[in-house]
């Protein structure tokens, strides 16, 4: 991976393919490797920029608390460094929240949006409280409990569970805790949806235990034009459980 300093943070990223730029943002508690099955399928369609968000993977862990808007600003600064003015952007789960923050911060740079197993509303007070409790527990007990608790919730696919266990285990407790707090404080993007004037693609697993498929259906109802793929038997990781279908859906951004 290559690294660049943006907003005072070392951000690692891969760049693959050719064509119109497409940023792919990973979810929690993962990193850029969740896109490894999808990227080869889209190399002829997009110039893909695949970063590790701050605190994850090979990017720098930041001790001070930050927001999803800060993470979106890192993406914008990375694009500036790469000379990319406009881009498609797609995010998985937390990466979807960050993508929505990017749209809010820099709408003029967005050619289209992909939301993979993500949602538009912010947290309920109860869920917000739970995230802060989880962040505190992570700082006390480390990453291993996250591995054990999250892995079976991410996917029913035993092979994919094995892949993501290793990815989660390599994350830093501070990065996970700070991201948990950032998600707790995210803004509600529901009212933002009606203003979208670019193509939107949704991919969601019908068996997603973490974000119910109803959240994607709600987004579909709020948009005038959207391409929605609902995957039967798939959990929270469509890009690993059904990479061909996920790549095919993202290709619709330019079709």
Architecture overview:
With 255 residues, the protein is of the alpha/beta class. It is built from 9 helices and 8 strands. The chain has an 8-stranded mixed sheet, with helices on both faces. Strand 5, helix 2 (94-105) and strand 6 (110-116) form a beta-alpha-beta unit. The longest helix has 17 residues, at 125-141. The chain is globular and about 45 Å long. The protein starts with a strand and ends with a helix. The relative contact order is 0.17.
Question: Helicity, in percent?
Answer: 40-55%
The oligomeric status of these chains comes to single chain
Nearest-angstrom radius of gyration?
A: 17 Å
Strand content: 15-25%
CATH fold name: Rossmann fold
First-to-last CA distance: 30 Å
CATH class identity: Alpha Beta
Order of helices and strands: EEEEHEHEHHHHEHEHH
CATH superfamily: Alpha/Beta hydrolase fold, catalytic domain
Low-confidence stretches: none
Question: Whole-number average pLDDT?
Answer: 97
Major β-sheet strand ordering: 1-2-4-3-5-6-7-8
Instruction: Please give the number of β-strands.
Output: 8
Q: Note the main sheet.
A: 8 strands, mixed
Given the helix and strand composition, which structural class is it?
A: alpha/beta
The CATH architecture assignment turns out to be: 3-Layer(aba) Sandwich
- Gross morphology is globular
Number of helices: 9
Question: How many independent structural domains?
Answer: 1
